[in-house]
Each structure stands twice: as structure tokens, then as C-alpha cells.
């Protein structure tokens, strides 16, 4: 049984409910096509029906939820063409952030990025794909945070939500872990060399490689 967001005596607002749902989509606990049952979310969060519906509307604007008349809300699915466009946007924005990290990040943020990379290396050695996935997200977020570009960060927050759960189930194979980690090292080497042009190019290449893997998985699923 899940703890209610409103267990402190104060009912959550629509933004908190939207965060609650978004995180479950991110973690695959709510999957594309799944109906979002109002009464169940009310039970889990302690929010009012009005706030839950407002949260649905917020998530619809973000492209995460579909609301159909007489059918209610459900987690939105997306085709491979949309996923491709998302990755193209990510490549451009994260390439920019990699370059801006060099000039804007503090010494502490640089050290934190290096430390996360050290932990990623250990995950590859010990074959820990789930932990690698969590640390990979931390690595990207730390780089975006250090870039200091709030507009890019806001846009990327939306683009980081996994859409094709089926594709992501086999995303972190042993080979992919090694390839992704090697990409990280190339980005990090460029950052430590204070080379923004190379850092941006390496990051864009890294995101492009991720799209390539997703496209292959998509083809295998449909084969």
C-alpha cells in the first residue's frame, strides 16, 4: 500500500499530483496505453478529484497523457518518428549544455560529474544495468545543472521521460553499457580539456547513438 502524499494533513496540489504520475511513468509503473483511474490516484495521493483532473490536464500539455471524452485519461504512447524527433532535440540541447558546462560549472560540480562517472565505470565492470540506468540519469542531470541554462534544463526535463517502455526493457545490454560509458568518457575528456566544440560534438554523438539503439530495438519488436 502506498503512502498518501497528503498524509501530513495537507492535501497535495495539482503540480504535486502531476509529479507523482510523471515519476511513475518515468519508472515504468504506468505504461503507454494504461488508463489513469481517478479514484485510484485520489486514494494514492490524498488529492481532491479536481486536483487530479487538473494534473491530467497539465500532463496532457506535456504530451504524457491523452484525455478522451467519455474514456478519461490514459498514458500516451508515441511512434518511433516522435521518439526520433525527441532525441534530435535532446542532442542539440545537451550538446549546448556540454559546451556551457565548461564555462559555467563550479569546481564542485566538475568533481561531482567525475565521481558519478567513476560509479558508472564500476557498474559496467560489475554488470549492474539498473544501477547504471539510475547513475546515467544523474550524470546527464549533473551536466545540465552545471551548464546553468535554465531554459534548456526545463525543455530537457520533459524530453527525458521514457516513452517507449517496451524499447527500454532491453536498452541496457552489456554491450550497450560499455558503448554508452565510452561515450561518457569522451564527453568528459573534452570537458576536462576545456574544449566546448568537442564536448558538444561528443554529446550529440552520444545521444545519436542512443537513438540508433532504440531504432534497432523498435525494428526487432515489429519484425
UniProtKB/TrEMBL annotation:
Swiss-Prot/TrEMBL keywords: DNA-binding, Plasmid, Transcription, Transcription regulation
Family matches, as Pfam families: FCD (PF07729), GntR (PF00392)
GO function terms (MF aspect): DNA binding; DNA-binding transcription factor activity
SUPFAM superfamilies (alphabetical): GntR ligand-binding domain-like, Winged helix' DNA-binding domain
Superkingdom of the organism of origin: Bacteria
Domain HTH gntR-type per the UniProt entry, residue ranges: 11-78
InterPro entries from the UniProt entry: GntR_C, TF_FadR/GntR_C, Tscrpt_reg_HTH_GntR, WH-like_DNA-bd_sf, WH_DNA-bd_sf
Protein name from the UniProt record: GntR family transcriptional regulator
Species this chain originates from: Croceicoccus marinus
Amino acid at each position: 500500500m502506498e503512502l498518501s502524499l497528503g498524509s501530513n494533513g495537507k492535501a497535495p496540489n495539482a503540480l504535486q499530483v502531476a509529479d507523482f504520475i510523471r515519476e511513475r511513468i518515468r519508472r515504468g509503473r504506468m505504461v503507454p496505453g494504461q488508463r489513469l483511474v481517478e479514484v485510484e490516484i485520489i486514494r494514492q495521493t490524498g488529492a481532491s478529484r479536481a486536483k487530479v483532473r487538473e494534473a491530467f490536464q497539465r500532463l496532457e500539455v506535456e504530451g504524457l497523457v491523452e484525455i478522451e471524452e467519455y474514456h478519461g485519461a490514459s498514458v500516451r504512447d508515441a511512434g518511433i518518428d516522435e521518439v526520433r524527433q525527441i532525441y534530435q532535440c535532446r542532442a542539440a540541447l545537451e550538446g549546448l549544455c556540454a559546451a556551457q558546462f565548461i564555462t559555467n560549472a563550479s569546481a564542485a560540480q566538475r568533481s561531482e560529474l567525475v565521481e558519478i562517472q567513476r560509479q558508472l565505470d564500476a557498474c559496467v565492470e560489475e554488470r549492474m544495468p539498473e544501477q547504471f540506468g539510475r547513475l546515467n540519469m544523474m550524470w546527464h542531470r549533473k551536466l545540465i545543472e552545471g551548464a546553468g541554462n535554465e531554459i534548456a534544463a526545463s525543455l530537457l526535463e520533459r524530453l527525458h521521460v521514457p516513452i517507449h517502455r517496451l524499447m527500454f526493457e532491453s536498452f541496457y545490454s552489456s554491450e550497450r553499457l560499455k558503448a554508452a560509458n565510452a561515450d561518457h568518457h569522451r564527453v568528459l575528456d573534452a570537458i576536462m580539456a576545456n574544449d566546448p566544440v568537442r564536448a558538444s560534438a561528443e554529446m550529440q554523438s552520444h545521444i545519436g547513438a542512443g537513438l540508433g539503439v532504440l531504432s534497432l530495438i523498435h525494428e526487432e519488436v515489429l519484425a
